[in-house]
Specification:
The protein contains eight helices and twelve strands. The strands form three sheets. A five-stranded parallel β-sheet has the order 2-1-3-6-7, with helices on both faces.
């Protein structure tokens, strides 16, 4: 199996070289770009499997780079991670609003980083299978693509419709209005709480009905903030699981 191609976008030569060495030892093929413009060229010509970028770049920034890829690139479904020392909630929120998948703070172990890289690449491979179907109603398994991925997909494409989810005897619905979540409900919870609960489902099924019924709004948090909170919860859960299996 060919090594996954990681595009490392970092204007600091020493930092970039150290990270490239770690990623190469972990089994990845690493491409490098030092600034916004060269990153766009690399992406267009070589279509990496994942992009790992700093926030601050020459002639632009990592967040702006992600926005351009999502909105104006011929490769909109490339996983995008930010790795930075900038710990700022507004910067993080802006990153998720622009389509960033993970916002990681330095320092991070290469093992921890590799887990996220592999999981994200796998998620996007499954998402691409659904991308051509979003213009109409479709169904699928939550083992293949989870709620957080569906939210991001519908938000990026400003979809309107009802997403019905099931896991065992549990049922729920999330209604999207031009990509924004207006309504969510389960048997015993609704609104934001229902979104967070269903975002934890790792198996089950979903059915999306384009357009369809409308519901009275009960979600007041922006979809980007919901995504941020769901991502935080999943990240914390992944860290706990990683630590549980780490040798003492």
């Amino acid at each position: 199996m060919a090594a996954k191609k990681i595009l490392l976008v970092n204007g600091n030569p020493a930092d970039a070289q150290a990270l490239q060495s770690d990623l190469t030892r972990a089994g990845y093929s690493v491409l490098r770009a030092a600034d916004y413009a060269s990153a766009l060229t690399r992406i267009d010509q070589q279509a990496p499997d994942l992009i790992l970028s700093e926030v601050k770049l020459k002639n632009g920034g990592g967040i702006e780079l992600c926005w351009h890829i999502r909105s104006a690139s011929k490769h909109p479904l490339i996983p995008f991670m930010i790795l930075t020392a900038i710990d700022d909630e507004e910067v993080r929120l802006n990153a998720y609003r622009s389509g960033v998948d993970f916002f990681l703070l330095k320092p991070v172990s290469i093992r921890n980083l590799s887990v996220r890289i592999d999981a994200l690449i796998t998620r996007y491979q499954k998402m691409r299978g659904y991308f051509s179907l979003i213009c109409r109603s479709f169904s699928g398994s939550l083992r293949d693509i989870q709620l957080i991925d569906l939210i991001q997909l519908f938000n990026m494409n400003q979809k309107t419709g009802s997403l019905w989810l099931s896991k065992g005897f549990s049922r729920g619905v999330v209604f999207f209005n031009h990509g924004e979540i207006d309504y969510a409900k389960m048997e015993k919870s609704e609104g934001e709480k229902a979104v967070y609960e269903m975002a934890d489902w790792n198996d089950g099924f979903f059915d999306f009905e384009a357009q369809g019924a409308t519901f009275e709004k009960n979600v007041n948090t922006s979809t980007m903030k919901l995504l941020l909170e769901c991502s935080k919860k999943k990240d914390e859960a992944a860290l706990r699981q990683l630590n549980e299996y780490s040798p003492a």
